[in-house]
Every structure is written in C-alpha cells, then in structure tokens.
C-alpha cells in the first residue's frame, strides 16, 4: 500500500512538473519492478527487485531532470522504499549497499547530460540518499530495541546446565570439609575474624527477601536480637545500602542497653556489585575498631564473600530441585494412585449394593476392604498435603507447622495443643524447610504408630535459635512399628544437615517427645 501511494504521488508530481504524459513511463517501470520486490520465492527475487527499483529511480530522476520544468525531486522520494524495506527485515547491510548503488547510479545517469554540474540535481540526489539512509538506520535501531530476545534453540541450555552442575559437584567434593553449607562457612568466617579483631558478639547476616536479613551464624555467649530490617536506622542497613564498612558507637541489637559503651563494625560481603551478606562485630568498649582493624576485617570479608556466595547458590539450586521433585511426586500420586484407589472404592460400593441379602459373609469382607481403601486414601491425601506444604515467606515457620498439625489432628481425631513463639526475624529458607519436614515426620509418626489421643506441638523461633518439639500421649517408642524407625533416621539426617540436635525422649506421663534444637553457639560443633 505504501508503494502504491508513493507511486501515485510521484506520478502526480511528474505530470505537474513536466506536463508530459510520456514521463509516466518511469512510474510504470517502478510499478513493474515493485512486483518482483513483493515476491517471496525464490528468495533472491525480492532483492533483485529492490536493486531494479533503485536503478530505475536513478534513471527516471535524471531523465525527468532534463525535461523542461522537470526536477529530479519528483521521482527521488521513491528511493526510501527499496532502501528502508531491508532495514525493517533486519538487513541493514543491504540497505547501506542500496544507498551506495543509488549514489553510483545517479552519478552515472546524470553524467551524459551534464547534470553533475547542476547544483540542484546534486542537492536533490544527496538529500534523498541521506533521508533514505538515515531512515533505514533509524528503523533498524528501533527494530533491535523492541525485538524480544530469541529463546535459545535446541538442548543447549540443558547441556550447559548439566556441565555446570557436574563441575559444581566436583568442586564441592574437593572443598575443605566437603561442604557448601552457608551456616558452616559463616561460622568459619566468624572464627577467622575473631583472630584479627576484638569480638564480644558477631554474626553473619544474609538476605532473605521482603526487606529483611537472616542470621546464618552467630558468635555470642547468649542469643542476640540483631536488627534484621533493612528499613531501620542502623549501621546494618547503612552498610547494606552503601556497600561500605560502617563503624558505630551503638549496638545493632534491638534489645541492647544504651548505658554500656559499645563499638560496632559492619562490613558488607560483596560479590561484584551485589551485596550478598553482612559481617557484624561488636565489643563492649569504645574505639575498638580503628582504620587498621577495619581494613583487615574488610580484606578477610572479601575472601569469605566468594565462598559464601557459592554456598548460597548451591543451597538455592538444591532447594529448587527438592521443591520441584516434591511437587512432581504430589502430582503423580494425585493423578495416578489416588484416583485409581477412589475408583476401587466406588467399585466396592457398587458391588455391595448389588449383593444378595443372604451373602452376609461376603458383604462383611467387602465392608472391611472398603474401610481399608478409605484408610489408604486418607493416608495418601495427608501425604499429598505434606508434599505440598511449604513455609510461606510472609506466614513463617510456626504458621506452616501449625497448619499441618491442625490438618493431621482433624483427620486422625487427635486433640492438638499448639504453643507458638516466633519473632519477626527469619531463619534461612533452607533451614526453615528442613525444620518443617522434621516436624511433619514427627507428627506423622505420632499419628500412625503411637495410638495417641493428644498431640502437643511447640515452636520457638528466635534466630539463630529454634526449637521444634512434638509430643504425644501414645504407647511410647517401645511399641512403635519398625517402619517408624526409618522416619527417625530421616529426621536425624535432616537435623544433622542444618547442624541441629535431635532429641527423642519418653514423656513422664506416657508417650514420646521428639525435639530438634537449632542454636548458634560460641564454638562450632558444640551442639
């Protein structure tokens, strides 16, 4: 449509300038050449058509310029069409080649008639060549800016991911202690810092989302209520925002006393231009962190930041893979075994409805079978709920454990007693996930094996400290079935993974108590 409109305009301008109908032959020839430019097959035909359009425009412009009253500017605007179209399609080199071809063709066509000495001819040629070239460049730049990135083709991303994960596994096995655990690396960093700087209290903090930090490790005789909000007026928030070490004369604990002199040093842990964590040191005396100490701690933090980033990335990869596998299993169970068992139950119901009245023995057996199918379906539904349960970023660990305990208690007829004490600070996401799974396994064991009537669930979270306890008034450990031992082993492995302590003890009034305790201690490995 644009070609047709421009050809019509050129025809009108040519007639108005020359008053000679024979000059329209050039418009007709351009129209014929445009048919080739529109063609799609063979692929070379549109390119040849555009070359023909440029050459015909040059010949037509020089011919019209020699007519009485004629001017090259009546036909030259058509140059924009063949030159801009390749740029629209992403071939800017072809556009520039056509600009060069147009310049040569206009010079060659105008030379025999002496037009190269005509300033108006040269001005019109230069003007429309420049307009066409600049317009092609602008169109190409806009196209590049607005075009979405093409997704990588083929299996290359998966091959690259496999290669990187294989390398990560190899490197992880070669690291000291064969670990990429953020908590362990943070504790090693605190131990190294204590050798070069005075420390009464220290912690390594990391981002958790939602404008708050989590405590990865702590060095203190007692738990410290660190200021973990990035919106607070604190040296911690200033160090995170400015990416510079901050020295302050007040404690970074929310419940600290203002009477005791305190020196605080907060050093950001940087990876390139990103802040991945903070190293916070405090000592109960003034002026404890001169520039020399700040420089030494900053240098040590720079080396530790790389190790910590690798551990955090590895932790994220492991958490994502675990969550995806849990969701996949939940989908398969729901769409497979669970649906089939429901159909089996319906079949048993139909058979019971059609049994003759004198088949009492068969009816009793079918009813017992129906009860067993109902029990298995209930177990599967609870398993699905467990697989899909996650710690919500805003709800917290205590809310997730309470929701699961209520659901299990309601389905199993247990009276659930909850004691929840959770501060606004959060544990690392991976740690919260492991604590939730331990609590779920303990609750499941009490429901399935203890024959309990009451369930007591206690959740205390005050990072880096946490204590989750599940108690029941059932038959005790001695009567638990052997398959419950596997659950205990899983709980022990999970507790060890987050450097916690699993405690399984009998209750004085009967039953069992399972507790997992997580606490940052002054020295590594004291739990």
UniProtKB/TrEMBL annotation:
Gene3D superfamilies: 1.20.5.1930, 3.30.450.40, Histidine kinase-like ATPase, C-terminal domain. Keywords: Kinase, Transferase, Two-component regulatory system. It comes from the Bacteria. The keyword Kinase applies. Pfam families: GAF_3 (PF13492), HATPase_c (PF02518), HisKA_3 (PF07730). InterPro entries: GAF, GAF-like_dom_sf, HATPase_C_sf, HATPase_dom, His_kinase_dom, Sensor_HK_TwoCompSys, Sig_transdc_His_kin_sub3_dim/P. Residues 336-522 form the Histidine kinase domain. The keyword Methyltransferase does not apply. This is Histidine kinase domain-containing protein. It comes from Luedemannella flava.
